[in-house]
Amino acid sequence: MAIITISRGTLSGGRATAECLSDLLEYPCVGREILQAAAKKLGASEELLAKKMEDPPSLWARLTKERKNYLLAVQTTLAEYCETGSLVYHGLAGQFLLRDLPGVLSVRLIAPFDTRVRSLMGSHHGMTQKAAEEFIHNVDEDRKRWVRLMYGADVGDLTLYDLTVNLESISQETACKIIAEAAVQPQYEVTAEVKAKLEAFAAACRTQLRSLGDD
Amino acid sequence: MAIISICRGTKSGGQALAECLAEKLQYPIVAREVVQEASADIGVSEKDLSRGFERRPTMWNRHASDRRLYIAAVQAALAEHVVAGDLVYHGRAGQVLLRGLPGVLKVRLIAPMGDRVRKVMESREMDAATAEQYIRHVDGIRARWVKMMYGQDIEDPVLYNMVINLKTMTVPSACAVVRRAAEQPDFAITPEVKAKLVDFRLACRVKVALAAARDTRSLDLQVEADGGVIEVFGSVPALTSGQMGEQIVAAARSVPGVDEVRLKVEWFDPYP
Asked: Chain B within 8 Å of A112 (Cβ-Cβ)?
């Protein structure tokens, strides 16, 4: 058992790889849905939370208490998913939300820009190539700035990840098998000791979230 | 069967990973040997050849012909190993010397600077600051070389199929992961791939012949092979003697296995 986080640019095949891993390893798989559970914790609507989380970085520049609460709610929800000791997470910022936790394999997926553009044009009929390129470029830039602002890091810095897989010349299935092999290595095994640490992390997140609520 | 090319900074665990893979997969392992073989092939000392490789870019233009020959010879030496279809290569610039070839799994290994510094301190009896300086110096030479030769950033992940960080992952685990990747059909040496590897070897041999021949050594030529048919590309001065084409064809045809040479060069006027 292990926790796998998958970071990637938009339309880089993150969801498909996550689902493949989930099937192969029989781990639960979670992505954006996490926002729903996080919203519930705050008594807010999912739409509002999603909007707040994905606001352009310019609006995050003032890291208000409200935004901190949203982020902590997302982290707490993710930490609770991790308590079972097996998970594939392909949502926002997994490599940061679970940073330095044992039992976590942090993966970055990269895909050629052209492939991503074609994929977007394929799923949105009538979208021009230029519009698709602009969309992907803008989403990438927003994420980059968001990560820079929140964590002072470069999302493309490969030292943040245990494994980076380039989907340019390998298939999704192969990427899935490679990541699965990494996940079953002893360094990422969720032993009883690691599990206790994951539970303690979730408990600490919950306590912090409650105390923010009490302010 | 697959060809595994490992690129890494100095003291990043590349040798240990290569040895583990070679043992588990029963593949031959090659690194610096290609430089030795290349130097024997072209009759240049290993020291001169290594220096030619690592020469600072500013010095290179003055020695462009030598450099071309050295690189062609190293690539050709590597091609002789690659053609067998299974190999672990952890020597210089595998990701660019084997660029575009099918059946090659290109792996980049990264490791935290602290770990690398400790290794250099032990092996070279240096203090921490000198060890780090040494690592940055060696990494810098390699990075500049790739940038200069191919205009690419050695750390750019698009050059590789995968990048493994040895911060948390151990070498045996990295070995298991790379091995799993090498077993996938994406890297299988099928009969078609094998034929391309044979073509690659012939093209490399022809490149060495062109870079070594007195009449053609000054030319920057690219070579492709398809069976015994060779195509030669590049910009060639249209000299009044009008013999340059024949000289290229003759140099290429001197290589056993070449049946036909097609000139696809662009002629230019050297005295406009």
From this structure: yes
B99-137 tens-digit pLDDT = 889 999 999 999 888 888 998 898 888 899 999 999 899
Contacts 24+ apart (CB under 8 A), B60-63: B60/B148
Measured between CB atoms, which of A164, A177, A187 is closest to B170? Answer: A187
Q: Are the C-beta atoms of A189 and A102 separated by less than 8 Å?
A: no
Query: For chain A, how many residues are written?
Result: 215
A187–B157 C-beta distance less than 8 A:
no
- Burial of B213 per CB tally in 10 Å (0-12, 13-18, 19+): middle
Q: How far is A163 from chain B (nearest CA, A)?
A: 5
Q: Answer yes or no: do A178 and B184 touch at CB < 8 A.
A: yes
Q: Quote the distance between the C-alpha of residue B26 and its chain's center.
A: 22
pLDDT (tens digit per residue) in B49-65: 887 766 655 555 667 78
Q: What is the value of ipTM here, to two decimals?
A: 0.89
Rounded distance between C-alpha atoms, residue A111 and residue A88, angstroms: 19
User: DSSP character for A85?
Assistant: S
User: Do the Cβ atoms of B18 and B7 come closer than 8 Å?
Assistant: no
B161, B164, B168: residue with CB nearest A166: B161
Q: Cβ contact (<8 Å) for A159 and B173?
A: no
In whole angstroms, give the CA distance from residue A85 to residue A194: 8
